[in-house]
Amino acid sequence: MIPVEHILLLSALLFTVGVLGVVLRRNVIVIFMSIELMLNAVNLSFVTFSRSLDSMSGVVFIFFIIVVAAAEAVVGLAIILSIYRTRNSLDIEEFNLLKW
Amino acid sequence: MSQIWLVPAFPLLGFILNGTLGKRFGTNFVSIVGPIVIGLAFAQSLVLFFQMLNVEGNVLSEHLYTWIKSGNFEVGINLQVDQLSGLYLLVISGIGFLIHVYSIGYMKGEEGYYRFFAYLNLFVFFMLILVLGDSFLLMFVGWEGVGLCSYLLIGYYFEKNSAANAAKKAFLFNRVGDFGVLSAVLMIFLIFGSIEFNTVNNEAASKLEHGGIIVTIITLLLFLGATGKSAQIPLFVWLPDAMEGPTPVSALIHAATMVTAGLYMVARLSHLFVLAPLTMNIITIIGALTALLAASIAITQTDIKRVLAYSTVSQLGYMFLAMGVGAFTTGVFHVMTHAFFKALLFLGSGSVILAIHHEQDMRKMGALKNKLPITYLTMLLGTMAISGIPFFSGFFSKDEILWYAYSSPFGSAWFWGIGFLTAGLTAFYMFRMIYLTFHGESRLDKHVFKNVSESTVSITFPLVVLAILSVFGGFFGVPHIFHLLPNSLEILFKGFFAEIPKGHGTVTTEWILMIFSVLLAFLAWYIAYRLYQSGFEIAYSLRKKWEWAYKISLNKWYVDELYNFLLIKPVHLLTNHFLWRFFDLNVLDRIVNSSGTAVRTSGNTIRPLQNGLTQNYAIIFTFGTFLILLYLI
């Protein structure tokens, strides 16, 4: 049995990688994938606690998160696609119209 | 069914037709609709008047609509014809009709002809509402309505600055009076729980203490309203300025009808007023002083319409003198006769003004009697009526007022003396006007004088009718001592007004006083004849000798200047230097401006945070989350 701490550490690591990806990368697709990574890091910690506490509620949360992530992927990709069509670029620094 | 509602409905219809269609359908349409609606209202008033005389209790009333209903309190739009409002109805619609006919000729070719008739119709409507209403609220609707129409008609030539100012002045002075009326109505509502005239009159004696402080305050406030509407001291200065309006307006509104609204209110509430002897005394004093003051101003004015305007103020003072000494019937009698002869005099002066191309200065008239024979004759009759020449209408009413001023328990020899003096001044300035206008040598431009001709029928017809009324109108109320005819007004008003204790004085005294005042009238006539008939040498030397008195009279006792000094200047200074320069600019503007600046500065400071870069937001969001986590753990 792998100790809970190790798995949680892995989850935290994955989450940090996701955050850094969102903050540092320029390509929208990569940022998008980083968000997915963060979601799955959370899933991992949920399933860990679910196992260690012997409760099913953590698993229920995971189902919800997977569904939301799927929906988000659909909407997000559609938005990215339409932005690409108008601006011919995937650089997030160029998508800065919404400001003062 | 008595159909009272028809009386105000006709003028309202005329207002709507003239106001909406008059411009499109032109002068002929307006000249037919305008007078005819008033004529119909007059016919219906006549019918109602005689119906009212034959009914038990002499009251016709009609419920049209429930306006306000709240618990026990209810105000309806109820119309009511009784002795007082019946008489007023006849005067308003009758004289109103004649003046509408007159206006056809007088206003011919004026810009906004339809507008004039629409306003005139609307005025008659509101005036009828004022006298037909059975409660304070409905009367107040009419009260404000006539004020509005007066404003619109004084400012009829609104492109002229003086007319616009005069209209404003009239409106503002009336507001002061309205404040009094409204406060009084509120107090009456608190005490009686009702604002119907009948309830107030019937319950006044039981609910209010005789001579008590509350009834005195109520009646004084009501009287303040009356001084505004009826141009008494201290609110009389608007009436002479109101002469900026067209002459028919001066005749109808500012002489015959609207200005008598204040008297109507006092007469209507006679049962309330007699409970406050102090108020009655104040009314008498104010009336007497106004009569004398206005008459003393009228003797030196040179504008023909201003002479008549001050004469109106003076005569209204007489009427209040009558009301104040408890002679309500006589006061209403003088309202009626005055309406006849003052409307006549104004319309006559309008005819003169029209004939000599809108010249109003009497110093430039003279010798018009052969050119304008009908105008001259009718105005002479009107002048004799107002001066109290025996057996003309003004003689009966004025003499009765003087008698009651002397003999009533509220009166005194002083009041009689002031009234007597005023009567002399009245005769003097009226005959002065006649001599300056119609006699002597012409001081008009020769070219203009050659072309002067008598006015059209629509102008002379009302003059003739009013002249007949001015001559014979007095026989409705012949005082008892003549034993000529029964005093029909006294029979009409039997039991209507509050009773006052019987006065002192014998028949012999009454005869002596009457002979005195007749002699005075003839003397004043003779003096005016000597001074102004041919040449003005005596008048000039008198003026030299009494320069200061002349100045005071010519400048209207400096009342306008006094108001200017006491009210307008301080208010002007206050608003200019304190409210505007200090408070508005330094306090209000600063508050507004600095709140704007504060928002803008803070916005500028934090604006760069929103730079449109999503990743920045993500960083801030993440840090925020960490901070919250730190706080929670």
Describe the structure.
The complex is a heterodimer of chains A (100) and B (633). With 100 residues, chain A is mostly helical. Chain A has a domain at 26-91: Helix Hairpins, CATH 1.10.287.3510. Chain A has three helices and no strands. The longest helix of chain A has 31 residues, at 57-87. Chain B has 633 residues and is mainly alpha-helical. Among the domains of chain B are: 1-134, no CATH class; 546-583. Helix content of chain B is 73%, strand content 3%. A two-stranded antiparallel ribbon of chain B has the order 1-2. Chain B is globular and about 115 Å long. Classes of the chains: A mainly alpha (100), B mainly alpha (633). At the A-B interface, helix 1 of A face helix 25 of B.
Structure in a nutshell:
The complex is a heterodimer of chains A (100) and B (633). Chain A has 100 residues and is mainly alpha-helical. Chain A is built from 3 helices and no strands.
Largest sheet of chain B: 2 strands, antiparallel
Structural class, from helix and strand content of chain B?
A: mainly alpha
Poorly predicted regions of chain B are none
| Oligomeric state, counting identical vs distinct chains | heterodimer
**Strand order, largest beta sheet of chain B:** 1-2
What's the number of helices of chain B? 25
From the spread of the alpha carbons, the general shape of chain A counts as: elongated
- Compute the number of strand runs of chain A: 0
Order of helices and strands of chain B: HEEHHHHHHHHHHHHHHHHHHHHHHHH
* CATH class membership of the domain at 26-91 in chain A: Mainly Alpha
User: Strand percentage of chain B, roughly?
Assistant: under 5%
CATH architecture of the domain at 26-91 in chain A: Orthogonal Bundle
Distance between the termini of chain A: 55 Å
What is the N-to-C succession of helices and strands of chain A? Answer: HHH
Q: Please report the two chains with the greatest interface, counting residues with C-beta closer than 8 angstroms to the partner's C-beta.
A: A-B, 12 and 10 residues
Helix content of chain A: over 70%
> Would you tell me the overall average pLDDT of chain B?
90
Radius of gyration of chain B (CA) equals 30 Å
Shape of chain B: globular
Low-confidence stretches of chain A: none
Tally of contiguous helical segments of chain A: 3
